[in-house]
Amino acid sequence: MGFKAFALLIMATVALGQREPTKDLCRRFGHQAAVVDQKLYIDGGQINWRSSTERPRTNFSNTFLGYHDLTKSPLGVDFPPLVANLSKNSSVPSVSGGQLWPDAVNKKFYLFGGEVSLAPSAPNLFSYDILNDQWESLGSPDKNIQSVSWAASVGVSTLGQGYSLGGYLNNATVPNWGSNQFATSQLIRYDMDARTWTNSSGPDGINGPGTAEGAMVYVPASNGGMLVHFGGVLVQANGTTSAKPMSTIHIYDIKSSIWYKQTATGPTAGGIPADRRKFCADAAWSADKSSYNIYLYGGQGFGTNVGYDDMWILSLPSFQWIPFYQSEASQAKPKHSLSCNIVNGGQMLIVGGQWPMDSETCDSGEIWAVHNADIGKVSTRPWEVYKTNITTYSVPPEVISAVGGSPLGQATNRSPKNGFENADLNVLFQKQAIIANRTATRAVPAATGAGNAAGGNGSRLPTGAIAGIAVGGAILITALILGLWFFMRQKRRKVSNRGVPPPISKDLPAYTQTPFSPTKYSDALPKAPEPPKQHYQLATTPEPVELYGSQGNHYQPVRQNSHNSHIPMRQESNSSLFGSMYPPSSRSPPPFDKPSPNPSTFSDGRTELSSSKSETYYGSPTSIVTPLHASLSQGRNSRPPDSYYSP
User: Fold this and answer.
1) What burial class does residue 503 get, using C-beta atoms within 10 Å of its C-beta: 0-12 exposed, 13-18 middle, 19+ buried?
2) What does the pLDDT read at residue 645?
3) What does the alpha-carbon distance between residue 105 and residue 192 come to, in Å, rounded to a whole number?
4) Which residues pair with 119 in a beta bridge?
């Protein structure tokens, strides 16, 4: 009976360890993301678990709130580690396609809108207090503002404002909606300091078509900054939908509250991204702000086109689409419903995404479905491991070829190919936004350390972590008590039987058997004992995981086997929970046209995991031995320059 109880406790402990995102994540998509104080927060969306046995994999609502620590890139992992011990109770909805607006001044972020898996509640704005690991409900907005999903959204922390353009109204966003899905055309603004809402018309006016599934970014041009919107779906009043052309760019001047339209062109006739939706985008700009470069990745297509596996740059104010990465047709892996966040100016972290052509393969679960784009091509290639020492933006060669200048700026081509469609834009892009420093509306630490900016204040543990420790401690104590009881019971049995001779058969004479050696005998003569053998342990050194990718110039994907993709996906093994990272046939990426001319000038800036922090960081469960390469840095194991991770 005691043994059964002990076994049940062990099984319960194993069950608690399953479906924990730092260890069991397979794929994630439809989430919201925001950066505050060197932490990339990921909230909501859908998750596929590695331990799940269903095929195709079941989509689960992600109820965890976590972040990637941007100050670390541990050896052998090479990406910001995931921490998922933040508080989020059932009163805070877990949504897909919502908006997450960061407020770095007050150490908060705001959650609004999105679709829920159960019946939706009335529109509500939630804020998360990073310093105290607490959520707060701020109530429903006024101005007849409804909760929407898949809107084009951006939060501007320097302004203390969150923006949302368009979005869907449906049964998953509005209580008792009861009709067909509809898209709005409104631009919503939330002022974080004044806690006020503004509801104004979008670029197509009040009576124009609604829009959804596009992207909107902020650039510090004009007097007070600009919002740039492109892509997605247009929804007419009668419900018919169409693609919004990627050549149509809408610009919102924040200070004057005026919308402008400009047509973008490519380096050649027709050389612009194909129409798409549910892609991700973010913006970076040169040091002198002579060019503002918006990076786009992936997206879902229209009609029979399932999607895209490519990256483009929209450079302003020349309004040129510039190809940055094109997958080969045989290796393309279309992806949508993902997030893009440019961190520290020089790298863009692409997290998650849904593969319409593959419903089973895990998306690099050992690195939590995170991929990194070297947007300045410091490494001479578009995909690279995450490096903590890249903290500035360099204009990549592709942009320099199109607009002139240097990696620092000095762009010479600062107008569209066919001129500005509104002369005001020419004037506005000659100005740079000068934004006054915001003052925190609550008491915040004078200097919040990057390594402890979220997830608690010093030694304080989140509520979820405390509950986990309590449950784990109770199980451990119970297991120890049962183990001690079992040990003492066995010991008492041995003591009670000591000195009692074994029963002797009545039919056979009793005898005692002399102990013998297991040494093999070839005859009756004894042999001299062999000298003891010495055993040696070979030293083992864990190597960093291998990277993989490719380049090409084909824009449209084709259906193909997952292991032939340029996308490095960790394959599951029958003999291991985590499995191997790739099949053997996909470990060697195709060669690049040009290796780095001087790779020794770049160091990776990655650090070991520190045990001094209160959080627990999880490294890669598996690793693959790769050849040593020391050209990127001295004194550590680096990857060859021809290997990397792409999404």
Assistant:
1) exposed
2) 52
3) 10
4) none
